Amino acid sequence: MKKGILISGLLIVLLAIACATNPVTGKKTWALVSNSEIFASSFSQYGEFLKTNKVITGTTDAKRVETVGMKIKAAAEKLLKAKGTAGQLEGYAWEYKLVDSKEVNAWCMPGGKIVFYSGILPICKDEAGMATVMGHEVAHALANHGQQRMSAGLMQQLGAGVAQAAVGGKSAETQALVMQAYGVGTQVGGMLPFSRSHETEADEIGLTLMAIAGYNPETSVAFWERMSANSGGAAPAEIMSTHPSDATRIANLKKLIPKAKAEAAKFGVIFK
Q1: pLDDT number for residue 255
Q2: SS3 letters for the chain?
Q3: How do beta strands 113-117 and 19-21 pair?
Q4: Pairwise CA distance, residues 174 & 38, whole Å
Q5: 101, 136, 187, 255: which is deepest, by most CB within 10 A?
Q6: CA distance 260 to 183
Q7: Which of 66, 95, 137, 199 is catalytic?
């Protein structure tokens, strides 16, 4: 009983002191692990990933990934500056790499470390498709979703009674958690719904970023339709997925497109 009270007390204290602000939405979020610690681990793991995978350079596709990446980066800087939160980009060291892999995937680690897999390029089809993916993945980083998921993981450990792992030795924990924070959740009712909410938020922020970068957000719908066709119905049930179903995502995007265009208009980007 006393142990339960102690753990509950620790949870309350940690929630009270370990908060950050989402620089895009202004929402309060968990921050049991600092960005400086996350970035150091992220940059290290990014470097190791590039060493163990074939990086494509000098090709038209590689150059397009970098071009779109720089435009999304510039859009992120404009958006956060307008919101008065540009300081949140301190420590970012943007990179945009294309790797040779048939896997249909792309990701952005904390601090702006981006990887596109060549397997997703046929589905992207063009720069607008790339911008849809790039905007979404960068949105995860801007909104500190990795930090939130890592914090949630630590809170789960604490809830299980492993208080020491949550409040001490976080540097050792970070290496193990930083990739998990961008991967599959742990259980239904726990990490999975949390991750789906991140995916939905990243879709909204991503649309805004691609629009500010000059890419019509309406093209995002066509990309996700192609993604859905590529899956051939093989995607897991939504309740067991960290991502919304394609149908849910497309419906949400259609609702969010007018808002993304309105945000872009504030920066002088007008779509007919």
Answers
A1: 96
A2: CHHHHHHHHHHHHHHHHCEEECCCCCCEEECCCCHHHHHHHHHHHHHHHHHCCCEECCCHHHHHHHHHHHHHHHHHHHHHHHCCCHHHHCCCCCEEEEECCCCCCEEEECCCEEEEEHHHHHHHCCHHHHHHHHHHHHHHHHCCHHHHHHHHHHHHHHHCCCHHHHHCCHHHHHHHHHHHCCCCCCCCCCHHHHHHHHHHHHHHHHHHHHHHCCCCCCHHHHHHHHHHHHHCCCCCCHHHCCCCCHHHHHHHHHHHHHHHHHHHHCCCCCCC
A3: unpaired
A4: 7
A5: 136
A6: 27
A7: 137
Tokens (6 digits) for 77: 């800087």
165 to 5, 170, 179, 180: CA distances (angstroms): 18, 7, 18, 16
Angstrom distance (rounded) from CA 50 to CA 76: 24
Query: Is 204 in the active site?
Result: no
Instruction: Find residue 56's DSSP bridge partners.
Output: 98
User: What is the rounded CA–CA span in Å between residue 243 and residue 239?
Assistant: 9
- Two structure tokens written together for 107: 């990701």
Measure the CA–CA gap between 210 and 25, rounded to whole angstroms: 17
Question: pTM for the whole thing?
Answer: 0.79
Q: Are 20 and 31 in contact (CB under 8 A)?
A: yes
CB-CB neighbours of 131 under 10 Å: 30
Q: How far is CA 28 from CA 52, 168, 189, in A?
A: 37, 23, 21
> Block means of pLDDT (10 residues each) for the chain, length 272 residues?
49 54 74 78 92 97 98 97 93 96 91 95 97 95 77 60 47 48 40 67 95 98 91 56 75 96 97 88
